[in-house]
Amino acid sequence: MTDLSNIKIAVVGLGYVGLPLAVEFGKKRPVIGFDISQARIDQLLRGLDCTLETEPEELRSASFLSFTTEVSALEEANCFIVTVPTPIDEHKRPDLTPLLRASELIGKVLKPGDIVIYESTVYPGATEEDCVPVLEKFSGLVFNRDFFAGYSPERINPGDKQHRLVNIKKVTSGSTPETADLVDRLYNEIIVAGTHKASSIKVAEAAKVIENTQRDLNIALINELAIIFNRMGIDTEAVLQAAGSKWNFLPFRPGLVGGHCIGVDPYYLTHKAQSIGYHPEIILAGRRLNDGMGAYVVAQLVKAMTKRRIHVDGAKVLVMGLTFKENCPDLRNTRVIDVVAELKDYNCVVDVCDPWAAADEAQHEYGISLVAEPETGTYDAIILAVAHHQFKEMGEAAIRKLGAATHVLYDLKYLLPAQASDLRL
Questions:
Q1: Cα 141 to the chain's mean position, in Å?
Q2: Is 232 exposed, middle or buried (0-12, 13-18, 19+ CB in 10 A)?
Q3: Catalytic residue (choose from 261, 328, 348, 353)
Q4: pLDDT, tens digit, for every residue of 86-111?
Q5: What's the rounded Cα separation, in Å, for the pair 75 and 356?
Q6: I need a surface site. Which of 9, 41, 86, 250 has the fewest CB within 10 A?
Q7: Quick check: is 261 catalytic?
Q8: How far apart (Å, rounded) are the C-alpha atoms in residues 23 and 206?
Q9: Would the pTM count as exceeding 0.85?
């Protein structure tokens, strides 16, 4: 197995996870940043990152980092770190296609003594049961004799400038004790917060997938409480503030649950559970509740509009925000799209504005043409769907000006004071 001092890394996949990792390692040792998108590589070569996770000066500081789309360039590496997406399909089933294709690509250049480390979120067992056989097939090498594997789950929080790669503790693991030690020492070169070496790859995989499953269930509970309190005429935020005065009350808030992790990872765990004959009840119940929040939001809005004698059929509605979270351009698995789709089912005319989202990506992914400047005095309803700082800075008066003489303002994110909106979750 390769010695730590001689490791040359290739990071496969340069998105929200891969690029920050490549940059940090590229400050200290040779790193090949690989992506199948030539447009992405061209952008990075110009010193720009459309994910906004890495600043231009950070890219410049990674003096040992190079970028390429050429598979042949990977032959120079002896340690491959896989950071490709692991989405779900339309039936909520894990889609390992990007992961398996990356494994195939690496298998074609794998050499004796090489290490392959996976960071993509998977169910327990996926690395050794799904990915390793692909590496063996395309390399002709034998696992744990000729090459080795590790798993170190990503913990990137898009848009978060406080909790970044280097100051989030990193879980590491390896397919042999020696590999686990090497992987742990490798990550300790860049992770200031330190590492936690798991006892096995499966333990590390399971730890990652339950992190977001736990958050998903906590949010589902708060969403259900919001539904109950709304029926009782009680302000949910006021209740949460009161309960939050106790030191051990967890500070979750209701809302739409999307993104590349929380709304996806539980399905990886439930898929694996079902494959071994166990039907998970609580996890799937939480998922069903969270997946239904878009429909609930629109139902509440329609009731409020009807009470104000606003004709719903043909009503013009402005949705403020499309990304899956605030102050971040990430559109992956945004559940705001559920709100938009539900409104269209009511035959509403929907405009969407978002200063963070890329217009071409919104069009490509969801068929939505973003409105750059919403028209004043136009909308029968306004939904504050994402808590971007630009919306908060607008304040109630500027947001209300976008509405018609009679309109409904629904604040999903508690962006405004309680009395400033007509509806809140």
A1: 34
A2: exposed
A3: 261
A4: 999 989 999 999 999 999 999 999 99
A5: 38
A6: 250
A7: yes
A8: 27
A9: yes
